[in-house]
Amino acid sequence: MRFTKMHGLGNDYVYVDCVRNPVPADPAALSQAVSDRHFGIGSDGLILICASDKADARMRMFNADGSESEMCGNGLRCVAKFVHDHGIARKPTLRIETGRGVLAVDLEVQQDKVSRVRVNMGEPILVSETIPTTLPGDPPVNAPLTIGDQIFEVTAVSMGNPHAVMYVGESFFTTKERDLVSEFGPRIEHDKVFPRRINAHFVKVHSPGEVTMRTWERGSGITLACGTGACAVCVAGVLTGRSARKVLAHLPGGDLELEWAEKDNCVYMTGPATEVFSGEWPGVSNP
């Protein structure tokens, strides 16, 4: 099976062209195999680029644990780059079908290759039942959640997939940053108030237009970036009065530009997409 390794700010996936080749028989098991960083290719998951009867291509995204997710913002930017650079559809604006619906992406092209992508991520989902969460409020804003001896104030947002945004102090991002994300991230992901699990984001605000965030991603663990999560952080900042509608988000893998636009209530995300290498994965054949 031919694959391409790509990443958006270090949030890396294995991509398979299923427009020109058949869909793998068991993509969940394949995602677990290729994602292994010791015995596989190494990635945060698997993304299939498929044909669509309503868009230029369809994206299916599987986490490293094999679970299928609705959306991945960093993955979507890479899908758009693949679709353009590999000749599936060469347009300045593409339409990509996702679990969230069909999303429009604008391409920045340099030397005939996509370098950055601006995505209309759609309107945030702010109804608790739809996010989904049993925390009170539509959406829950600064809702208390006790994890062990720690109380977090959670603002919950869905961008087609569920996110819990928590604002933390400076100490969370210093000497024990990774330990704290690893300790609390999986417990928040699996807490009973999130019936479909959740992506957990820990955020520090520098100014109304600038934040730093760290992510525990549902089904994958600590990742270097989360595009839908950054969009959720942008929305949560406005809902809690902590940040503006336009923010620059610093993630471990790099920066994303976000805007929750008043004109259409949609969240716009701009960031890079990078192709790393291509290869052949044994055991899965293409005709």
Which features would summarize this protein structure in a list?
287 residues, alpha+beta, Diaminopimelate Epimerase, Chain A, domain 1, 18 strands
Summed up, what is this model?
The chain is α+β, with helices and mostly antiparallel strands and 287 residues long. The protein has four helices and 18 strands.
| CATH architecture assignment name of the largest domain | Roll
Q: Main beta sheet: strand number and arrangement?
A: 18 strands, mixed
Structural class: alpha+beta
Kindly state the percentage of residues in helix: 10-25%
Low-confidence stretches: none
Distance between the termini: 9 Å
The CATH topology of the largest domain corresponds to Diaminopimelate Epimerase, Chain A, domain 1
Number of helices: 4
Descriptive report:
The protein has 287 residues and is α+β, with helices and mostly antiparallel strands. It is built from four helices and 18 strands. It has an 18-stranded mixed β-sheet that branches. It has two domains: 2-120 and 272-280, Diaminopimelate Epimerase, Chain A, domain 1 (Roll), CATH 3.10.310.10; 143-265, Diaminopimelate Epimerase, Chain A, domain 1 (Roll), CATH 3.10.310. It is globular and about 50 Å long. The mean pLDDT is 94.
